[in-house]
Specification:
single chain, 377 residues, alpha+beta, Trna Endonuclease, Chain: A, domain 1, ph1033 like fold, 7-stranded mixed sheet, 26% strand
Length: 377
C-alpha cells in the first residue's frame, strides 16, 4: 500500500498534526487546476470534465512533455475498484483522440486558447502533431486504495498498461489545512510503460525488449553533443520527467544515442550511476575538474543546480563509436521517442538496431572504444 504520512511540528516538544479531510474532492480538483504541480510539475492541464461520449466525463486531462496524454480521475465517492474500471473505460475513448479533437478540448478548457502555442510556452519546444497522443497514462487520485485495486493496478503495469495511483492526506495545522501526496508506483515506471509501446496499437508490433536502451540527447542551448562525446557522458535536466529515466540505466548497459530531429549519433556502454551536475567530474587539459566549471558553452541547467528535481544529471558513458551531428544516421522507419531513456518493445526498434549495427561497426562492447572523433567537415 502507499506510504501513509505522519507530520510533526518541529520543536523541543514535537507535536503531531491531526489528520483531517477536505470538505470535498471537488476542492481538490480546483486545487489541481490552479496548481498542477500537486500531481506533477511536468504536466500541462488541457481539459476538465471533458465528455467522453461513453456516458461519463473525465475529471482532468493533461499533456506530458512528449505529447502523451495523462488521464486523471478523482475517486469522488466511488469505490476504488469502480474508479479503476471507469478510468480504463475513459482510456478507450482517449486512445482514439486525434490532434483536432485534443485541440478542441483545450480550447474549451482555456476559453479559446491555442494548444500549439500554449504547449510551446509551457515546455519550450514545439508540439509535434505527428506524435501527439501516441501514448497515454492513467492516474487515479484518491485518499486511500484497497488491496484489490492495488493488485489490479500492479497487474496492469506488469503488462505495460500505464496506470498509477496518487494517494493524498490532509492535516490540520495552525496555518490551515496541509496536503501531502504519495504515489503507489514510481512515476518513472508509469512514464516508461506509456513510452515503450508508443505509436502502435497492433499486437503483432509488440515484441520483447532486446536489452538495449534508447537514449534521447537534446543538443541545444542546455547541452552539447560534442561535449558528451568528447568527455564521455549523457545528461538530462529541467525536471524529473526528463532526468528521472536516467535512473533506469546501470553500469554495463548498452545505449544508442539519438539527437531529436537529427538522428543517431553514438553507441556506448554505461560506466556508472547518474550524478548530480555539481558533483560530476570530467577530464580536462589540466586534469579532472567539475563539469559545470569546464563545460561553459552550454547552460546544463546551472540555474537549477540547487534544486533536486530540476537540476541536470550526468551518466558516465564509455563510447564505443560516435559521429558528429553532421554525420548522424537518420533513415525513414527508425525508432524515435522523446523520453530521455526508454526500453522499446516494438518491431521498429529491432529494425533500428539492425540498421544501426550496420552503420556503427564498432558497436560490440568487446571491441576497443574508438574515443572522440573530430567533427567531419
Amino acid at each position: 500500500m502507499p506510504i501513509r504520512h505522519s507530520i510533526w511540528k518541529v520543536g523541543a516538544q514535537p507535536a503531531a498534526l491531526r489528520e483531517a479531510a477536505l470538505p470535498s474532492e471537488a476542492l481538490l480538483e480546483e486545487m489541481i487546476v490552479a496548481e498542477p504541480a500537486i500531481l506533477s510539475d511536468q504536466w500541462m492541464i488541457i481539459g476538465r470534465q471533458a465528455n467522453t461520449g461513453f456516458g461519463g466525463r473525465i475529471d482532468l486531462l493533461a499533456l506530458a512533455p512528449d505529447g502523451s496524454l495523462v488521464l486523471i480521475e478523482l475517486k469522488r465517492g466511488k469505490t476504488p475498484r469502480e474508479v479503476v474500471a471507469q478510468a480504463i473505460d475513459y482510456a478507450c475513448w482517449a486512445e482514439a483522440l486525434d490532434s483536432d479533437e485534443i485541440s478542441r478540448i483545450y480550447a474549451g478548457f482555456s476559453g479559446g486558447g491555442n494548444l500549439s502555442q500554449a504547449f510551446a510556452e509551457r515546455f519550450g519546444q514545439p508540439l509535434d502533431e505527428d506524435t501527439l497522443n501516441e501514448s497515454h497514462q492513467i492516474v487515479i487520485v484518491a485518499s486511500h486504495l484497497d488491496a484489490s485495486s492495488e493488485r489490479i493496478v500492479g497487474y496492469l503495469n506488469k503488462r505495460d498498461i500505464a496506470i498509477n495511483v496518487l494517494c493524498f492526506q490532509v492535516f490540520d495545522s495552525e496555518l490551515g489545512q496541509l496536503i501531502s501526496r504519495s504515489w503507489l508506483l514510481d512515476p518513472v515506471e508509469t512514464q516508461m510503460a506509456a513510452s515503450v509501446s508508443s505509436g502502435s496499437t497492433r499486437s503483432n508490433d509488440n515484441q520483447p525488449w532486446n536489452g538495449e536502451w534508447y537514449v534521447n540527447f537534446g543538443d541545444g542551448e542546455s547541452r552539447s553533443w560534442e561535449d558528451a562525446r568528447r568527455h564521455g557522458f549523457i545528461s538530462a535536466g529541467g525536471g524529473s520527467w526528463y532526468s528521472g529515466t536516467l535512473n533506469l540505466l546501470h553500469e554495463g548497459d548498452r545505449i544508442w544515442a539519438r539527437v531529436p530531429k537529427i538522428g543517431y549519433v553514438g553507441v556506448g556502454i554505461v560506466a556508472g550511476d547518474p550524478v548530480h551536475a555539481k558533483d560530476f567530474m570530467i577530464d580536462g587539459e589540466e586534469g579532472p575538474g567539475p563539469a559545470l566549471e569546464m563545460l561553459t558553452d552550454r547552460t546544463y541547467h546551472r540555474n537549477f543546480v540547487e534544486e533536486v528535481e530540476r537540476a541536470e544529471y550526468f551518466v558516465p558513458v564509455r563510447w564505443l563509436q560516435t559521429v558528429p551531428l553532421s554525420a548522424a544516421v537518420d533513415e525513414v522507419g527508425l525508432f524515435g521517442n522523446q523520453n530521455t531513456v526508454c526500453a522499446p518493445k516494438r518491431a521498429r526498434w529491432r529494425h533500428t538496431i539492425d540498421r544501426l549495427k550496420a552503420k556503427f561497426d564498432r558497436w560490440d562492447d568487446a571491441m576497443e572504444p574508438n574515443g572522440f572523433q573530430p567533427p567531419i567537415d
